[in-house]
Amino acid sequence: MFSNEDILRRCHELVRELQACFGDEPPCLVQVIQGARPFARLIQGGLAGCLPVHEVRAKSYQGTQSTGEVAITMLDGLDRTVVDGCDVVLLEDIVDTGRTIAALREHFSKLGARSVRVVSMLSKPSRRVVEVEVEHIGFEIPDEFVIGFGMDLDGRYRELLDVVVYDADVERAHTQVNA
Ligand code: IMP
């Protein structure tokens, strides 16, 4: 669906969009692990000053199905003292039903963030269940389950450099050939 080159090019543009949003005070970058890691690394690298990237875990998917429940875990010392009064930038791989980002926006607002801004590499607008603002979107995509560039299917395929549509038939054929 998107080559690694497409992603790199779009990330440069997103960095420029973000730079225009903040003044002297640096934002608090928070990546939603694990899927957003490669994307977050590019955004972080593009921003001047090499800001630290904090981590939050939000789990809502099992296989290719959204469970509807979002479990949030803050990692590595990310807590109210870090967030309070900061402009939080949430870095996400993909917004699908919108539940995860809605839950995270609320979570960080409650922790005292001055503002919360979302940057997502991908968005599937036709799948929204919850209306949620996503200020910066890399690419809008149709209702397909995609893998690669950090995105997984139960922990597999994150390492693919491109973003591709998951196809169960292709995977089965591949498994048989390699068996
Ligand atoms: P939402 O809460 O339904 O918006 O789901 C967001 C999360 O679901 C993302 O952070 C991903 O972890 C996962 N997700 C949604 N769609 C896909 C997909 O097509 N491929 C891989 N993961 C996905």
**Sheet having the most strands:** 6 strands, mixed
Name of the CATH architecture: 3-Layer(aba) Sandwich
The coarse overall form would be globular
Bound molecules: inosinic acid
How many separate structural domains?
A: 1
Structural class: alpha/beta
User: Fraction of residues in helices?
Assistant: 25-40%
How are helices and strands ordered from N to C?
A: HEHEEHEHEEEEH
Tally of contiguous helical segments: 5
Tell me the distance between the termini: 28 Å
**Gyration radius, in Å:** 16 Å
CATH topology: Rossmann fold
CATH class: Alpha Beta
Mean pLDDT: 93
- Major sheet strand order: 3-2-1-4-5-6
Low-confidence stretches: none
What is the number of strand segments? 8
Beta-strand residue fraction: 25-35%
Task: Break the fold down into its secondary structure elements and pairings.
Blueprint: H1 4-19, E1 28-33, H2 37-46, E2 53-62, E3 65-74, H3 80-83, E4 87-95, H4 99-110, E5 115-123, E6 136-140, E7 146-147, E8 164-165, H5 168-178
Parallel strand pairs: 1-2, 1-4, 4-5, 5-6
Antiparallel strand pairs: 2-3, 7-8
Inosinic acid (IMP) is lined by residues 32, 35, 60-61, 66, 92-100, 145-147, 151.
